[in-house]
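Q: How would the C-alpha cells look for this protein?
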Amino acid sequence: MDSVFIGQNDTAPDIELQLFAPGGAPMDLTSAVSVELRVVDAQLSPVFSGMCTVFDAENGWVRYEWQADDTAEAGTFLGKFIVTFADQRMTVPNNGGTRIVVDREYAAG
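A: Here is the predicted structure in C-alpha cell form.
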C-alpha cells in the first residue's frame, strides 16, 4: 500500500502515483477516458474526490492536484482510483488502497 503525507490546509506537493493492473504490470492508461481519486474516512464516508491528470499513460502514472478543501480535515484516509475506459471501469487498487495522511496543522504561537 502506497502512503501519501501532506499537511493540513496544504495544497502541495501533488500526489504522483503509478497505477498497476491486476497482474502487477503498470496499467496502460492510453485509452482511459478519465481517472478519478476518491478518498474515504475510516467509516468509509466520502471525504473528497477529484479528477487526475495522466502524465505517462503507457506506464500508468497519474497526478492529483490538491484542492483547498481536500486537506481541511486532519486524519488518515483511504484513497482509490477509478479508471474509466470507453467500455469498462476499474477500481485501482482493487484490494486495499492508498493511505493518505493529512497531518494536523500547528497553531501559530
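The chain has a mean pLDDT of 93.

The CA atoms of residues 3 and 99 lie 5 Å apart.

Upvote if useful.
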